[in-house]
């Protein structure tokens, strides 16, 4: 994990702090996020896209995709490092605003934004709204008109490139809910250009998440540039937003393309396509989420039970149960996502044993790490660290089995502080309207 090392006792340290000290102070399970690592990564990603676009005489804006991991503190970190923020709901918008983010540096997404969300976005002066349907165009135009403002908008298109992790496949008619088919964009944009309360800024496309390599992005950009060029004949098209989706390493076998190489590859593909069509390179926008926060997060758990199970005649597997699971990390259950684990509280000379790290929930699919080699003496009380949990773990967390969400602790320059407090059972009971009701039952 980011900033991880071992102290002389063999205890894993995170940002210079022993994991055992974090357990004593904050308990387990615990989401730990390295603020220094988030900031450094935000700077690195911003620099990569800025430099790649500057070489072609254009500018780049990077929006942090808040859905990956959002709290007011995280918004402040990425804003201070020069990133804008992309929100997908009124709730995410409220968090960004509560962090003091300038609304002009926010963008809003969503295939079914409510009237209330659109009103909220327009009323605070959001920088851009990414339009996702014909119905929404009319709704947003009416709201902006009523408020006497001109709202900047992008149009989400579906490039027909659906990138899936290491692979991508092209289909002419993608069967999914987001955006407009690319061929429809000219007609949609013509409609927007008729509406005085909307200002068309450009196209937006996002091809998927946890994508490795540039091929899918380059293919998608090439297709979108063709339409972008066509739209230039009808007026200005100041930006092109190419979305996020840049993959990270979850385990040793993952080998993602370095971000600078990825940025160069994508932007060079865009520039090549623009040159071929004799148009200037537009200012570009990107929306990375996972690559900013993913590897800056670690979850700490305490081992509760260890149980050897004869998996097959030849294989014995240690089931190592921890005090969290699918409520704090739904990704293995949802996507079959792979993570790794190691003992954080000590080193061990015991031989490696095949282990499955599982949670405390009432489902056999409640897996944290499907297959990992842990020291054969792994035992109750050991602290386990699961790295790369900074993206889509806290944001996808739930109260399944009435389990309170863990706190989030941020590490900065050798200090640790709670940035999102953990839930308590009282938090859960507080919403249950039956709890405080007078007992009507007479005996
Ligand atoms: N922009 C748009 C329009 C998006 O829909 C997304 C992610 C992003 C940007 C950021 O993508 P990123 O850079 O983080 O890959 N829960 C799933 C991932 C869902 C991604 C949804 N959209 C997971 O845990 O893998």
TrEMBL record:
The active site is at residue 362. The modification N6-(pyridoxal phosphate)lysine is found at residue 67. Residues 32-390 form the Orn/DAP/Arg decarboxylase 2 C-terminal domain. Pyridoxal 5'-phosphate binds at residues 245, 287-290, 392. This is Diaminopimelate decarboxylase. GO terms for molecular function: diaminopimelate decarboxylase activity; pyridoxal phosphate binding. Specifically catalyzes the decarboxylation of meso-diaminopimelate (meso-DAP) to L-lysine. It comes from Microbacterium sediminis. The keyword Lyase applies. InterPro entries: Ala_racemase/Decarboxylase_C, DAP_deCOOHase_LysA, De-COase2_C, De-COase2_CS, De-COase2_N, De-COase2_pyr-phos_BS, Orn/DAP/Arg_de-COase, PLP-binding_barrel. Pathway: Amino-acid biosynthesis; L-lysine biosynthesis via DAP pathway; L-lysine from DL-2,6-diaminopimelate: step 1/1. Pfam families: Orn_Arg_deC_N (PF02784), Orn_DAP_Arg_deC (PF00278). It catalyses: meso-2,6-diaminopimelate + H(+) = L-lysine + CO2. Residues 46-293 form the Orn/DAP/Arg decarboxylase 2 N-terminal domain. Belongs to the Orn/Lys/Arg decarboxylase class-II family. LysA subfamily. It is an enzyme of class 4 (lyase). Its cofactor is pyridoxal 5'-phosphate. It comes from the Bacteria. GO terms for biological process: lysine biosynthetic process via diaminopimelate. The gene is lysA. Its EC number is 4.1.1.20. Homodimer. SUPFAM superfamilies: Alanine racemase C-terminal domain-like (SSF50621), PLP-binding barrel (SSF51419). Keywords: Amino-acid biosynthesis, Decarboxylase, Lyase, Lysine biosynthesis, Pyridoxal phosphate.
């Amino acid at each position: 994990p980011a900033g991880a090392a071992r102290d002389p006792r063999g205890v894993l340290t995170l940002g210079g702090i022993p994991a055992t000290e974090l357990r004593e102070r904050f308990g387990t399970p615990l989401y730990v996020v390295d603020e220094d690592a988030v900031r450094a990564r935000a700077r690195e990603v911003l620099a990569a896209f800025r430099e790649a676009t500057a070489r072609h005489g254009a500018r780049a804006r990077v929006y942090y995709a808040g859905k990956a991991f959002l709290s007011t503190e995280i918004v402040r970190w990425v804003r201070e490092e020069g990133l804008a923020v992309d929100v997908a709901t009124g709730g995410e918008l409220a968090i960004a605003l509560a962090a003091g983010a300038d609304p002009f540096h926010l963008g809003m997404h969503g295939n079914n934004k409510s009237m209330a969300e659109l009103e909220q976005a327009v009323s605070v002066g959001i920088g851009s709204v990414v339009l996702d349907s014909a119905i929404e165009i009319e709704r947003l135009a009416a709201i902006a008109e009523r408020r006497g403002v001109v709202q900047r908008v992008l149009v989400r298109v579906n490039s027909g490139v659906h990138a899936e992790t290491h692979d991508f496949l092209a289909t002419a008619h993608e069967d999914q809910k987001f955006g407009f088919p690319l061929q429809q964009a000219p007609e949609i944009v013509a409609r927007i250009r008729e509406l005085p309360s909307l200002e068309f800024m450009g196209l937006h496309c996002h091809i998927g998440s946890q994508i490795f390599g540039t091929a899918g992005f380059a293919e998608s950009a090439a297709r979108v540039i063709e339409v972008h060029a066509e739209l230039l004949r009808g007026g200005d098209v100041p930006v092109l937003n190419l979305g996020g989706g840049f993959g990270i390493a979850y385990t040793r076998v993952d080998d993602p393309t370095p971000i600078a190489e990825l940025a160069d590859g994508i932007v060079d593909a865009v520039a090549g396509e623009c040159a071929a069509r004799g148009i200037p390179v537009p200012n570009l926008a990107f929306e990375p989420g996972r690559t900013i926060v993913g590897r800056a997060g670690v979850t700490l758990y305490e081992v509760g039970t260890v149980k050897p199970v004869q998996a097959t005649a030849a294989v014995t597997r240690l089931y190592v149960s921890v005090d969290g699971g699918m409520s704090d990390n739904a990704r293995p259950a949802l996507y079959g996502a792979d993570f790794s684990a190691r003992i954080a509280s000590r080193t061990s000379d015991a031989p490696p044993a095949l282990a499955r790290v599982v949670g405390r929930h009432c489902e056999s699919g409640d897996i944290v790490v499907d297959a990992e080699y842990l020291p054969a003496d792994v035992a109750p009380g050991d602290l386990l660290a699961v790295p790369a949990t900074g993206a889509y773990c806290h944001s996808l967390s739930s109260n399944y089995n009435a389990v309170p969400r863990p706190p989030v602790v941020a590490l900065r320059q050798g200090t640790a502080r709670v940035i999102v407090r953990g839930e308590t059972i009282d938090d859960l009971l507080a919403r249950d309207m039956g709890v405080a009701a007078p007992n009507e039952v007479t005996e």
